[in-house]
Specification:
181 residues, two-stranded antiparallel ribbon
């Protein structure tokens, strides 16, 4: 296990939870997937890791997925809701608990130019009839996550709270609902 390669360091710990964006984006309540992509390698079901490794009576909230490449780690929370319908406190708990757990997992890791990202991916809203304010909202991190990141000494290099359409643009080869590609 390399102390210098992020992917190698975490792969052993997470290998039993290998998954896909499709599986980790599944919405139990509506029985549907927000993302259909099964092609991207190195996606792990962080919720399943938490269930297997923490006390069942007090499970910490966590993001749905972790995607790892050699120098970048993405924590991804999928919400099959429009941004205005998402519970701020729930997202903040997932951010806080997930970050604490991840920091514990990485305590013996010696990073070299690694970047950590936290994404909240939600359902694309309907286009407003008169004034489209969505481009203004796009540059704003929602759910007060930037403030929480300050509390963690800026652990994450990038925080995005965006619709699935933005996520598709960010990862051009993803196959997700509402895909423009």
């Amino acid at each position: 296990m390399s102390k210098f390669k992020l992917k190698d360091f975490l792969e052993k710990e997470l290998e039993a939870y290998k998954s896909s964006f499709k599986q980790t984006s599944y919405d139990d309540a509506h029985q549907q997937y927000l993302c259909q992509d099964e092609s991207r390698p190195d996606v792990y079901n962080f919720d399943e890791y938490i269930k297997a490794n923490y006390n069942k009576s007090r499970l910490p909230a966590s993001p749905d997925a972790i995607h790892i490449d050699n120098k970048r780690l993405y924590c991804v929370e999928f919400k099959n809701q429009r941004s205005s319908q998402i519970d701020n406190h729930e997202i903040q708990r997932k951010f806080t608990n997930g970050t604490e757990i991840l920091q514990k997992m990485l305590k013996n890791f010696t990073p070299r130019d690694c970047q950590y990202h936290f994404y909240v991916v939600f359902k694309t809203g309907n286009k407003p009839r008169y004034f489209d304010y969505r481009h203004i909202q796009r540059s704003t991190v929602l759910f007060n996550l930037e403030k929480l990141n300050q509390d963690f000494n800026h652990f994450y290099d990038r925080i995005l709270t965006e619709s699935i359409d933005f996520f598709i643009d960010e990862f051009q080869d993803l196959r997700c609902e509402g895909s423009k590609h």
